[in-house]
Amino acid sequence: PDMVGKYIPDKNMGWVKRTFDEDGTVFLDVVKTLVGTLVSGFSTPIYSEDGKQVGLLRGVIVTTQENTILSTILDS
After folding, report:
1. CA 48 to CA 7: how far, in whole Å?
2. Spatial distance between the Cα atoms of 62 and 4, rounded to a whole number of angstroms
3. 45-69: per-residue pLDDT in tens?
4. What is the tally of structural domains in the chain?
5. How far apart are the first and last CA of the chain?
6. Which residues constitute the domain of residue 34?
7. Which one, of 66, 67, 57, lies nearest residue 28 by Cα?
8. pLDDT by residue (tens digit) across 7-43?
9. CATH code for position 15
10. Residue 52 is assigned to a structural domain of this protein
11. Rounded distance between C-alpha atoms, residue 29 and residue 1, angstroms
């Protein structure tokens, strides 16, 4: 999938529909980006006070050979 730039191409928007259709958190596949990194993530609906879906939250996790988060914590 195309995962570089300031917008998400239409062909990569299936997860949005799936998130709203399933009305819950969706975990995304691991894919290789155009710049060679591996990414994964999740999306989950955001609800209004009356329980209606009003948006979604998407989290993206970049997976690399080096555990940067662990290295940062250990070096602090």
Report:
1. 25
2. 13
3. 999 999 999 999 999 888 766 667 6
4. 1
5. 36
6. 10-75
7. 57
8. 777 887 888 899 999 999 999 888 877 777 778 899 9
9. 3.30.450.20
10. yes
11. 11
